[in-house]
Automatic annotation (TrEMBL):
<keyword id="KW-0328">Glycosyltransferase</keyword>
<feature type="domain" description="Glycosyl transferase family 1">
    <location>
        <begin position="238"/>
        <end position="410"/>
    </location>
</feature>
<dbReference type="InterPro" id="IPR001173">
    <property type="entry name" value="Glyco_trans_2-like"/>
</dbReference>
<feature type="domain" description="Glycosyltransferase 2-like">
    <location>
        <begin position="448"/>
        <end position="609"/>
    </location>
</feature>
<dbReference type="Pfam" id="PF00535">
    <property type="entry name" value="Glycos_transf_2"/>
</dbReference>
<keyword id="KW-0808">Transferase</keyword>
<dbReference type="InterPro" id="IPR050834">
    <property type="entry name" value="Glycosyltransf_2"/>
</dbReference>
<dbReference type="GO" id="GO:0016757">
    <property type="term" value="F:glycosyltransferase activity"/>
</dbReference>
<dbReference type="InterPro" id="IPR029044">
    <property type="entry name" value="Nucleotide-diphossugar_trans"/>
</dbReference>
<dbReference type="InterPro" id="IPR001296">
    <property type="entry name" value="Glyco_trans_1"/>
</dbReference>
<dbReference type="Pfam" id="PF00534">
    <property type="entry name" value="Glycos_transf_1"/>
</dbReference>
<protein>
    <submittedName>
        <fullName>Glycosyltransferase</fullName>
        <ecNumber>2.4.-.-</ecNumber>
    </submittedName>
</protein>
Amino acid sequence: MTTLWGVSFDATPISGVVVEFVKTARIFHDRGYRVLLDLGYDIKADKHAFHRPYRDESRLFPDWLELARVDGLDRIPGYHEAFVADVLDDLVRRGDPVRSAEVDAVTAALAEAIVAAWEEHDVTAVLVENGTLPENVAYTRALRRAVEEYGQRRGLGRYVLWRDHDLMWQSEPSSGKYGTDPWPAVDPPTDSPYLHHLVLHDEALRRTRQWAPQLTAIDVLPNTFSHDRATVTPGNRDFRRDHGIPDDVPLIARCTRIIPQKRIDRDLHLIAALPDAWLFVAGDPTESPAEHRRLTGLAADLGVTDRVVFGGRLAPYDAEDPAGWSVRDLLAHATVVSFLTSYDYESYGNPIGEAIAAGVPYLTTRYALYDTVYGGKGFRAPVLAAAADLPTAAFVAEVAALLRDPDARAEVAESNHRLSLRHFDRGQAERLLDRLLLRPMNPRTTLSVVLPVWNEAANLPAVLDSLAHQRGPDGAPLDHAGYEVVLVDNNSTDDTRAVARAFAAAHPTFQLEIITEPEQGVSCARRAGMVFASQRSRGRPAGDEPFHLVSADADCRVDPDWLGELAAGMRETKAAIGVCDYYYSAAHFASRPRLWDAISRTLRCRAVTFAIFGGFPDGKGFAVDRDAHDRVGGIEIFYQLRDGRFVNHLSDDWDFGIRVAAAGEDIAYLPRSRVEINPRRVDHAIDEVITGRAYGANGTIVMRDIRPDAGDVEPAEPVDLTEDEARQAWEFSIKDFTPKNTILPVLLRPARLAEEPVREFFGPDLADRLGRRIAEILDEMRVTDLSPIHAYKTPAYRLYFEFADEIFARLRATVGEDIGYPPPLPPCLAEVPPERFREFVRYYCEDRESGEAHNYFGNGGVF
């Protein structure tokens, strides 16, 4: 089993740093890692837990997390709490090098013990939390030494994530605790091949790069929060009663350590000014007994003792404590959450984020990084000015108004919750970890197959089995070292991920990577998978063989020779994109001859024109050279309005092919690489197929979910189309097909009209006239780039209407007489005098209001 070792420099079981570790570690756990956490009792001195055994701390954590620590540290000569405090004081604050030799000796012994612990637990990934702050110089240096030694010994890549929640410029800089800028006694981060640095926001990234410009591997990983709204449930409804808080009073919640820097005194003064409100302080009163005594005395002086509850330490947000209450329970009963902290103490303000994600309003000070993390992103709350020592009258009035108005609280909470999903959703961490910490790519791998999935648990075993049993052109099984599958989970709510992991466990040589894409839509998932595969492939040892990204579809079936023929075709043609052959099983339509006739004529047209023009990629199966993919910027997601809401454009594969072709790259048709199309694309959208609306209408290209519901019953005997329905389905199919596959290739690259196969297809006279007309239309429209969404449609549609009779004559000559003649013109064009036909074709095709032209052409495909 793969193992994650976590180490916190906080030396406490409950803190923002530890809670963030649990959230991140959960992602590792979900991927099969064993998770161990060292709470740092043997690291930080000011918590006075040095060498103290763990007691009941494990009850505060999920059952999948094990508490661990490095053995034998209490036996290292000179390594104790006083040593750590003295080094911080002597070496860091005063720059006195007198302790350097002693520090070096302790560092060596610590590093040896750390490596031994990692060896014992077979550690494969490490997450260091807040290790750069010089709280313990010897331990930080030892960790960095252990990272290098263990990484070299195990042959690991960047197996360590080193996350800094706080650095010197954002953690009490006025106190001089860590020296002064530029902190000459603080060891800057090292640029190790085994280590990737993380910071919490862009300001931290900027300052860290300024301080340590040698760093090349550094990213922003914002704190993330579980976006389940906190509600009163049978399990927590007695929270107020158990703490003596009336049900009908406003409750201000404060989740914090009880230390002077947190400024809980401000909350007491606020409560004194709000005679109907109560305050609940969730924090350990034993951490700083003097501060707890000061606060309880202040509460008595202010006359608010009976309205202030020091509730003790609650289980953290992501843990379940059957023996007591959790932060989740407090949030369910809180009216607002308070964060009236010191100006220069906080970096992120996790209680704010937890309140927002739980759907609870908050109030805060404008601490140094508040605007960077929250305020600058549009989050709304009463904010106490940075210069104010205690709550001002204006601030108290704003809080009072919020407490009195439930509608205002609900509106603010909803607005903040929506923003939080954009900025602090767990998906951000998952995507970054997908990129940083998956196993290194095999140096022999030259193909990444991207497989977007959404609730495909039922189909997935067969799909993965077909991908795991691919053959080469010689008929031998493809070596699993030569290709991988990148499964992109697009918010599945079924067992898709579990099914994929089970398949991978049962097929240990099959390379399967699982990543997530939170934005819904197959286009978004395909883009995420290809970007991930491209970036990841850059880290493999360079070879002479090109690297290819391959698209597959979870609801289709690839032939056993699909991938081998695709790879061979890409090597042979040197094309930027390789397009597969797509087919339906004729047996599925045996009882529906009219429908099959319309489908088979479309497939025959595709085979002929793809062989001549190369075709365009379809997400069901194509390959693209990685470098060509990166040169054009990858798959671009376009957005359109549908029913007043933005939706992502469906034909990302087609638009991507247009961008590649428009860039002068070649597209090759590789007919021996074959994909069987799932007939449900027709079966469960037959009405839309017949009317040309299967992919949307009025220019908006989307497609509804065509998978049958669990309760759907398949008809015992599928019903064939009537003659009128079959004719209509064919007309929509050929109207969609012809502009895209016979006109668009030469519209994008008119020079192709001089190529022999293209010229032979059109005939010299038609080819020359098409070339002249394309030049005229492009000049008239002043179009120089046809790759943006829909830019190609107007000229392609115009050319279709002007040359339809001649193009259909060429299709009849090359595909078969049954292709027939062009479908009837739109009634409005049929009434136009012949001498003005081109003029009104232009108006028809450029009409942006009605979408008539898009609807006429089937708007995105039928079969």
